[in-house]
Amino acid sequence: MNNLTREVGERKKKLEDRENEVATREKDVENKEEELQVKAEELQSHEAKLKEEGRRLQNVTHRLQREREQLVADKKKREKPSREKQQGG
């Protein structure tokens, strides 16, 4: 009987240890999932900021392109009268 009681006690202890291991692993997985969720949210926020910055850069690029085109057009207008003066004079 004594051996049987001891064996039952040992098996019960092993079972409790396994249950504790499983509980620890589940908690670890839960913590990792929370960490991943936080990182995913941070990435989404960063991505949104990058998209906004990309839109700003695109707007600035278009504005600079229009300004450059206007400067080229203004330069051509200034050159045209001076060419006419050279040819006519």
Please characterize this protein's 3D structure.
- This protein is mainly α and 89 residues long.
- The protein has one domain (1-89).
- The protein has one helix spanning 2-88.
- It is rod-shaped, with a radius of gyration of 38 Å.
Key words describing this protein structure:
89 residues, mainly alpha, rod-shaped
Instruction: Assess the beta-strand content as a share of residues.
Output: under 5%
Shape label:
rod-shaped
Largest sheet: none
The quaternary state of the protein chains shown equals single chain
Q: How is this structure best summarized?
A:
With 89 residues, this protein is mostly helical. The chain contains 1 helix and no strands.
Describe how the helices and strands are arranged.
Blueprint: H1 2-88
